Amino acid sequence: MDVEAVLQKILPKIRPTDEERAFVEGLMRELEGIAKETIESLGLDVKPHFVGSLAKDTYLAGDHDVDLFLAFPLDTPLEGLREKGLELGRAIAEKLDFYEIAYAEHPYVRASYKGVKVDLVPCYDVKSWRDVRTAVDRSILHNRWVIENLRGRNDEVRLLKRFLKGINAYGSEIYIRGFSGYLAEILVIKYGSFLEVLKNADFMLRQKIIDPGNWLKREYETAMRTVRREAEADRPLIVIDPVDPRRNVAANLGWERYGFFYFKAHQFLESPSEEFLFGRATRSGSYLSELRRKGTHLVTLVFQAPELVEDILLPQLERTARGFERALSREGFSVLGWNVGHSGNKAFIMLEVDRRERERVKIKPGPEFFTERGWDFYRKNERVWLIGKRLFAEKTVKEDVIDVIVELLEKNQVAMGKSVRENIRDAGIMLDYVPKELEDEAYLFLSREKWNLKGQQ
After folding, report:
1. Number of separate domains in the chain
2. Percent of the chain with pLDDT over 90
3. Phi and psi dihedrals of 323, rounded to 5?
4. Which residues make up the binding site for Mg(2+) (predicted)?
5. Which of 223, 245, 278 is the last residue of a domain?
6. Per-residue model confidence as pLDDT tens digits over 23-34
7. DSSP 8-state code for residue 449
8. Contact, 7 vs 51, CB < 8 A?
9. Known binding-site residue numbers for CTP
10. Cα–Cα distance, 257 to 157 (Å, whole number)
11. In which domain, by residue range, is 93 found?
12. Which of 68, 132, 157, 292 is most deeply packed, by most CB within 10 A?
């Protein structure tokens, strides 16, 4: 099937239907009414702004998260913004179905209304990048820029977002390190279409700097500071934010996720298929067969997950896995790979090691040489020597990797993420066995299907 035919099959599945649009638009009108009424009743000078993919009409069918930003005047002190912003967010959320307080740079309200997630975020009412005072302020400027520049290519953005989701490269959160929705929008605006973005996967990597706002002409010094800083940090792409020359939109994009996009873009153009955009059923197999095939061993630590949001928990688990890798390598074991994650209220760290036991030579003190026991010791041991009148010998012992890990933990010799350190001390440690709910995860890890560039998932 040629590429255009594949895209024509995909578009109706990812484009919102007329009914869906009517629901979303009605929902946004209601939320805006509630927000304005609440702002008025509290006597505040605040403007409600919808931002994100719903406001830009780049959302995928079935994906209706609402971002409602509450823009305070620029002369509001930061403390006042935090306090009044939370008070206003709470007052709006009281009229919705459910809410909780969440924390980013400053507290905001996470609510739910008619089955849709609604984030109520206080920010400053900025007109230009020079006004930006908090990390979220730019969102209003982003919205405006995309709406002005997209010019009817909304479905192209949908295709790119769906492709990035299908290959697991979507999301700029620190634990994913993929493409943000805004970056996808910028790339479509820059290259003109979904297919052109894929065709430029190699070129944009070599070109390195994408400057859609023309900042290198308009604000050379500021933009060059961004370029130098990001080049030093070795980012795959430097995309100077078209609304702020101080920011790289692709700052959170990691080399692995870009590499995945790079190969998958090539594969899709060569043999287009819906599977790239929707993924295929995850392969399953036996992790025990994988261990037999490779002749390696699997150590799994399972423990209570601390109550942390994912973008804090996962980096802590990764840091701890790297700590185990270094500690075990000092002890003579090779760690061939590691994997971390959480399932429900349990977190896990998996380590693939080259062997289950190591041989260690220990010095064994014996009795005095002129006794009956001395003769016995002399006959039983291979290498025997005297220090003073005592006999000594070498003894080879086998030490199990689990015992080594327990000892490392007892002696505090593993560098770990501070929020998971205490929980890991009580971890269940398993060798060549995982609980039933982790069997598929263990297979995907050991077979490397989890990261396989040649599969379509």
Report:
1. 3
2. 79
3. -60, -45
4. 65, 67, 119
5. 278
6. 999 999 999 999
7. G
8. no
9. 53, 56, 142, 161, 170
10. 18
11. 13-129
12. 157
